[in-house]
């Protein structure tokens, strides 16, 4: 499966805000990851990748919702597309601006930036496609953007298909990893990256030749505790002589001379995070495989599974990876066909105990007669690792959560744990891009010392933020 296709209509008829608001902040940059205006609070990016912009179906946009001392403030936001003044490119049908997004401080000014992989963007009349658009953070929020222009790989086919940012060579500058469907299929743009679009250098890696796995999904984090970001490459590989495929992952460890060096294969999946869930100083790799168990998906499980591969000084621990499903003790629900448990993942400390927890989306979970309504489960980190003990699940049928579960909403399609109010606890943002027949919506659930709570939760959508709403797939991607 090359891409998790969102089967939604894309026939927006509304316009799009094309100007950015006045000053959003005035403080010196905080240096906090995910803080685009430098005010010390983490911000959130919500994609609406199938929205109609300037009359172009499927052109897409992103919304930036800013954090405050009271949490995410939907009145403090920006709507950004290729029609926005200062942003490169032109809205075109099928660009899906925002369906690939990552964040990081690429120019080293203390403000986090947003990188959009516009992988479907055709380059003039050439056979090349794909642009890497950096939306620059600053004290006034995001006011300009630049396409990375040099150096570029010789061959580009959907450059920006996958993205991750991190300091892979340990030189103190954030680098950008970007996948495409050409050779090499993984490109590392070494930082700093200037606001004119110049990277310091480019390293090309052929992951297919090295590992038989293509760079379909990229995840950055420090697994071996050496201070350099490692890169998890997730994709598929042939088995049985090419008669079938299975999901696999490989860890590339950070390296000062070559930026990354090939490591060891491990459990595959379609989404992943790196977080130190047992707080031993090494990042742990959590992968989600929503597929059913079969000869073509031997890593899967009934209704989907989450696998934890623990980190160590050598990269991967000798500890046996732990597999968690809805049949694991303590996890609410039951593993059932087509639940898609593990469809989406995010890491954050939801109760302030110092252990990162994991949000797991099961976007196709049925609730009563509502097919593919969707749920989100919070798995707890602990000294012994990720556990089902104390897990909690939420849906639109949970008391206090706005709305009601309906067939094909796909609640939990994307999840994000982010501390937007600076209290040391991560709140949960969950989306359902198929809500209201493809308009999409997102929900914010607050956190307490007991973890995520539905009390006081709220929902918002494209209309709430002043952007196009109809068939926008609002919430297709969440990041920050």
Task: Describe the structure concisely.
With 480 residues, this protein is mostly beta strands. Helices cover 3% and strands 38% of the residues.
Please tag this protein with its features.
480 residues; mainly beta; four-stranded antiparallel sheet; 3 helices; 3% helix; globular
Q: What is the rounded distance between the termini?
A: 26 Å
* Average of the residue pLDDT scores: 91
Biggest sheet strand line-up: 3-2-1-32
Uncertain spans = 1-26
Helix content: under 10%
Largest sheet: 4 strands, antiparallel
What is the radius of gyration? Answer: 20 Å
The proportion of residues in beta strands is 35-45%
Structural class, please?
mainly beta
Global geometry? globular
Question: How many runs of DSSP E, i.e. beta strands?
Answer: 32
Number of helices: 3
Q: Could you walk me through the main structural features you see in this protein, from its secondary elements to its overall organization?
A:
- The protein is mostly beta strands.
- It contains 3 helices and 32 strands.
- The protein has helices spanning 207-211, 435-438, 462-465; strands at 44-48, 61-68, 71-80, 101-104, 113-122, 129-136, 144-147, 162-166, 175-179, 186-190, 201-205, 217-221, 230-239, 244-255, 259-267, 271-275, 284-289, 305-309, 311-312, 315-316, 322-324, 341-348, 357-362, 375-380, 387-394, 415-418, 427-432, 441-445, 447-448, 451-452, 458-460, 474-479.
- The strands form 9 sheets. Strands 3-2-1-32 form a 4-stranded antiparallel sheet. Strands 4-5-6-7 form a 4-stranded antiparallel sheet, with no helix packed on it. Strands 8-9-10-11 form a 4-stranded antiparallel sheet, with no helix packed on it.
